[in-house]
Write the structure tokens for this entry.
Amino acid sequence: MRSASGATTAHTKGLFGLFLNFVKVSSMNTIFSFQSNKTHYTADACIVWCFDDRFSKLLDEYIKQQNFAHVDLVKIAGGAKDLASPENEPARAYLLDQIAKSIKLHHTKEIILMAHSECGAYGGSTDVDFYTNELQRARESVQKQFPDITVECIYADFELLQHV
């Protein structure tokens, strides 16, 4: 509503704003309600992990064992593969960009790169030496781009998680 001077009243703006918010929300179907923590955080690590669900519980346990409060998780087929042996340069650039955003936005202290046995992105290889070499190449790629950040490489099989 406008007053005699033609100005919109704060009350009307408030109601109109509520209406617009209602329209935005009402066009969606709620799955469930949840309260996320809005507090900004510093990431303990940016973890590049394979999206193979066989290793999801291992990831959860690793984060717990490391006592990480906050991680930026990049889950992608092959984990660190595209940093070591990308099918194309944009694939490597994408992962490096995700790491750069983690560092910029969350002041990440450490980058953790993962590869695992029988990874489909690698054709299912079980050769530990092959994965060790790939992780070392991935580490070099990240260190070249971010020389002041600690880079850790880990290899998973179906029984162990090991530092490389």
Notes: Strands lie at 45-49, 71-75, 110-116, 150-156, 161-163. The CA atoms of residues 29 and 39 lie 26 Å apart.
